[in-house]
Write a structure and sequence with these properties.
The chain is of the alpha/beta class. It folds into 2 domains: about 220 residues, Type I PLP-dependent aspartate aminotransferase-like (Major domain) (Aspartate Aminotransferase, domain 2, 3-Layer(aba) Sandwich); about 140 residues, Aspartate Aminotransferase, domain 1 (Alpha-Beta Complex). The chain is about 40% helix and about 15% strand. The chain contains 17 helices and 12 strands. Strands 1-7-6-5-4-2-3 form a 7-stranded mixed beta sheet, sandwiched between helices. A 5-stranded mixed beta sheet has the order 8-9-12-11-10. α1 packs across α4, α2 packs antiparallel against α5 and α5 packs parallel to α12.
Length: about 450
């Protein structure tokens, strides 16, 4: 007989949790050895998980319940004190959301030995806000200058969040007007800078940045680099492998190409470089966010949204490749059209950032440069001419959406970037004659035909 005292109820659940986590870690390592498409299809939902918790279903089940039941008071105590994995309440976590988070983290670290964790949110803006707020907090009750450096070529909601909401909290944003010029960033970083932020490719201007150079700059100041890679997705760009520390996505867009739901994601490497954070958040930033700030503010993703996004994610590479090829065809057509003044698409060899983008944006598991489904162009003439063209579209939807299997267009100056004001739009390079076009999965000849007849009316 053993002289060791039996484990208490709480300790027993902790021991079981440790065994479960070891199994999950081993399976995660197994998945990391597989190809991108296999990870996108399967994620962390194994045959064993299906048979033990999914009643044999081969697709991740939806858990729409708001809360988790516990076997007894010991398991509840262990769960609510974070001693064991738990989804206790869907404002904090949910099993379906877990499968999406794990899949995204595996895809963003694909082909590397980088350790990272994911956190899914109710929207892309919620992801950005959750990611940056702790990095901008005052420390130990002190009042000190706080700033962060960001590309000015960002989504309009991001511009508003940084330029207005974060300013209301006392954080100064320092805009970089030429984000493709690595030397333009360094003079703006000082001892009070909390992080560096870039969007690649940018919406709608098609800017990109030298991620490795920005990572070196950020790390030389012991601060993190954040990259919004919504348009590229991990099928074309995985910023962590180039030195970035946190990747952000509006899952509503390219990953959620069906347009069925809204969502966002934060994928953060472990051991985050940040001299302004304590050891616990730095060790696993995404998980710490989930357990504490995210729990308290409540921007949770629903189980139904996670299920829809998992379904969209499975064929990510194929869809991104097809829509990228379509966009290249459309961009080449527009570049030669006499009623189009300019075309912004990184895939065009004449684009000033084409060479830089080609170094980073490649179809996964190939050396083939590829540049995504988003482009913009300016209609020759005045704002009224752009609106006349826009109103003449018949097949392409007029909407502020993007990343769809259906082609969608908008005029950013009167929609997504209207709130920036004229000065902000000038800084970001968004004239009134610019049209943002997201090319979908239709046959490109049909998209071109709709553009052609609409331009004929200008």
């Amino acid at each position: 007989m053993s002289d060791q005292a039996p484990a208490s109820g709480v300790e027993r659940y902790v021991e079981q949790a440790e065994a479960f986590l070891a199994e999950q870690s081993a399976y995660r390592d197994e998945m990391r050895s597989l190809h991108f498409d296999t990870i996108a299809v399967h994620g962390m939902y194994s045959v064993e998980a299906a048979l033990s918790g999914g009643q044999g279903g081969i697709i991740e089940p939806i858990f729409p319940s708001t809360s988790q039941a516990y076997r007894d008071s010991d398991e509840m105590e262990a769960g609510l004190s974070y001693q064991i994995p738990t989804w206790c309440y869907s404002r904090i976590h949910n099993p379906t959301v877990y499968y999406l988070e794990e899949t995204l983290a595996l895809l963003e670290t694909y082909g590397t030995d980088i350790e990272a964790a994911g956190l899914c949110t109710s929207s892309g803006m919620a992801a950005i806000k959750q990611a940056v707020e702790p990095l901008l907090a005052q420390r130990n009750g002190r009042s000190e200058p706080i700033n962060f450096v960001s590309s000015a070529h960002v989504y309009g909601g991001t511009f508003q969040l940084f330029g207005v909401r974060m300013a209301e909290r006392g954080a100064e944003v320092r805009w970089v007007a030429e984000p493709g010029n690595a030397e333009a960033w360094e003079p703006l970083v000082d001892e009070h800078t909390r992080f560096i932020y870039a969007e690649m490719p940018s919406n709608p201007q098609q800017s990109c940045s030298d991620i490795a150079a920005l990572a070196d700059l950020a790390h030389s100041h012991n601060i993190p680099l954040l990259v919004d890679a919504t348009i590229a997705t991990p099928a074309l760009l995985r910023p962590l492998e180039h030195g970035a520390d946190i990747v952000l996505h509006s899952l509503t867009k390219t990953i959620g190409s069906s347009g069925a739901t809204v969502g966002g994601a934060i994928i953060a490497r472990t051991d985050l470089p940040c001299r302004f954070l304590d050891a616990e958040p730095k060790s696993d930033y995404a998980t710490w966010l989930k357990l504490w700030p995210f729990r308290d503010s409540g921007p949770c993703m629903s189980a139904n949204s996670a299920f829809a996004l998992l379904s969209d994610l499975r064929l990510l590479r194929l869809k991104v490749e097809w829509m990228s090829d379509n966009t290249t065809r459309v961009a080449e057509y527009l570049a030669d059209h006499p009623k189009v003044a300019s075309v912004d698409y990184l895939g065009l060899p004449g684009h000033p950032l084409h060479e830089l983008a080609s170094r980073y944006m490649k179809l996964v598991d190939t050396d083939r440069p590829m540049f995504g489904h988003l482009m913009s162009f300016t209609v020759r003439g005045e704002a009224a001419d752009a609106r006349r063209f826009f109103d003449g579209l018949r097949r392409i939807f007029r909407a502020t959406d993007l990343g769809r299997v259906k082609s969608v267009a908008t005029i950013p100056a009167i929609s997504t970037h209207q709130q920036q004001g004229e000065e902000g739009r000038e800084l970001a390079g968004i004239p009134m004659t610019m049209v943002r076009l997201c090319v979908g999965a239709e046959h490109p000849d049909d998209v071109i035909a709709d553009l052609d007849q609409a331009l004929a009316g200008v």
